Each structure stands twice: as C-alpha cells, then as structure tokens.
Amino acid sequence: MKIALWVIVGIVISLGLVIGIGILMFRREIKKLNHEYIVQFVKAKSGSRNVSLSIKHNDETWVDVNGHEQLPLASTVKIILAIEYAQQAAEGKIDPQKEVKLKELDKFYIPKTDGDAHEAWITQLKKDKETDSVPLCEVAYGMIAYSSNANTEYLMEVLGLQNINHVPKSLGMLNHEPIYPIVSALYIPAQLMNEKNLSKKEVLKVIKNMDMSEYRNRAIDIHNRWLSQPLTDQEKNQLRKTLVMDFQKIWSDRLPRSTTEDYVSIMKKLNSKIHFNENVYKYLNPVMEQIMENQNNREWLIHAGQKGGSTPFILTIAMYATDKQRNQTEIAFFANDLTVLEQAKLSRNMNGFQLKFLKDAKFRTHIKKNCLI
C-alpha cells in the first residue's frame, strides 16, 4: 500500500509539473510580439475557409484571401449599428443628447459574458462623478469604444432592427446575414430547458438542428420580453451557470456573418468622408474614431477608425486610416474556430500588424508577395 501511495503521489507531482510548465510556456508564447504571425497564420489557414483577409491600399486591392467567405462577425457587426445611429441622428429621427437611464441598459446586461466591457464603460463614466444616466451619443460611443453588448442591444430597440438590417443593403453589401439581438440569444438554451424540461445535452441537440430564422425569432422574442420583464440578478447568475462551453460555441457560430470583402467596402466609405452626407460623419466620427483621441495618433494620421470583435473561438477586426501623406488603407480580418493559443496570439499581434502595414512600405510589399491575391 505504501508503494502504491508513493506512486500516486509521484504521478500527481509529475502532472502538476507538466501542467505548470505548460501554462508557463503558453504565457511566454502569447507575450511574444510578432506582427509576422498574422501573415503566417493566414498562409497556413487559407485553405480551411476559417480565415479571411482583405486589404485595400490607395484604392488598390492589396490582399484578398477568402474575401468572399462568410464568417461570424462577433462585435465587428456593431459598425452597422453605428452607421444607422449616425444616419438617424443626422436626419433628426433620434436625439443624440437624450438622456438614457443606466437601468435601461441593465435590462440587457449579463455579467461576465462580454469580457467585462460594460463594467469598464460604467467605471469610466463614473470616474469623475456618480451618475445614473448618460446621453444617447455616449451609449453609442460605449458600444464601439468599449464594445458593450448591453448598449448594442439597447440601440437595437432605439434604432429598430428593420432599419439596422437595411444598412448593409443600402451600402451594396451582398453577403451580410440579418442582425438580431445577440445578448438575448444567450438565453435560448435556458428558455428551451424551461419550456420543454430538457437536459443540457438535449437542448444542445435541439439548437444544433434549429433553423436560423427560428433562432433569430426566439432571440427577438426574448429581447422584447426583457423590455418589460428583465431578468433578475438571480436569474442572470443562473443563466451564466447554464452557458457551458458547448452552448457558447453554438452561440458564437450563429452570430451574424459577412465577408471581409464587404467590410473593406464599408471601411472605404468611412475613410473617404464623401459617401455619406457631411452631417452623418459629424455623428459617426466621434463614435468610430476613438483612435484619434490619442495625441500620438494625431501626429501622423488625418483620421482612422476601427472595430474588433471576439469570442473564445473568433477574432475579427475592420479598420480604416488616412495618414498625413494621404495614403488610404482599409483592412478587414475575420477568423473562426480558433484554438485558445491562436486566439490569444492573434489578439496580441493584430495591432502591431496594422501599424506595420500602415507605416512600413517594405512590409506592405512583403505582405503582397506572401499572401494569396
């Protein structure tokens, strides 16, 4: 018995060492800064149809890898809401200065489901003074700058889903799936459990087989119910416990999809400053171009804007920039079915890749040669 016990102790210690070394190596790997990783990743994964990269530089198609491939957008889809917000503000349909009670946003806030984005925005709001309301323009800003999902879902109600879903068509986007309330969709598994008294395994099967139109309609119905009957704090906590990784993966896979080709075309319209009425840019620029709040960026850029998105399985970003030499660049990158390491390394190196492309002509040439066009 003593020998067996020591064997077990030895195995446990060995496993602990292996796990510890693995975690250490993982941390070291994701800390490395390597803008070349994005190029390597695109080349390696281009045949999988789970990665797409489209780049335009000074009106020239610089890179087009799987540009027609529909992939989940994650929070990058919020660009469409920002455009509709600016258009309605410019037309006087909404008042950007109208006060919004924070408790109205709380109806759509599920803690720990957005990377603490909403909490970070609230903390920043209350940095100078305690407040229980903010102007609508600040809600839109929080949706883009902090990626608050609660703000996004609230704006869906204010702007109208039908109006929001008209934006891609009006911009000539051919491959954009309908936008629907993505926070409310998190509740679909719990709703099915309650309705049909199903186990998690059974619910997983039902959702996998569910038609997308039914899935979207369920999310819209939940959204409408939360307007008058939001979840209690206890119900929100219970919902979080329901969202096992399998449910998160289905939710992630069913997010609205589009193509990098379509999103580069949007970035071009935002970058040009001539596609929309001047009044639209007046409301859109403060929301989309938080990059320009940084003095260092103002020293070499005329204007720039971006929005990224992520889930444990997705990383997406769409950006545009015009530098002081009048060079114009638009980039859209979408990736799906990522491993934890891939997601972490892409997130870590994307900003460096963008900056290198914008600032380094040799790197731009290198990209053109090494990515399929």
TrEMBL record:
Keywords: Carboxypeptidase, Hydrolase, Membrane, Protease, Transmembrane, Transmembrane helix. One of its GO terms (molecular function) is serine-type D-Ala-D-Ala carboxypeptidase activity. Its EC number is 3.4.16.4. The keyword Zinc does not apply. Residues 59-173 form the Beta-lactamase class A catalytic domain. It comes from Bacillus sonorensis. This is Serine-type D-Ala-D-Ala carboxypeptidase. It holds the Pfam family Beta-lactamase2. The chain crosses the membrane at residues 6-26. InterPro entries: Beta-lactam/transpept-like (IPR012338), Beta-lactam_cat (IPR045155), Beta-lactam_class-A (IPR000871). It comes from the Bacteria. It is an enzyme of class 3 (hydrolase). The keyword Transcription does not apply.
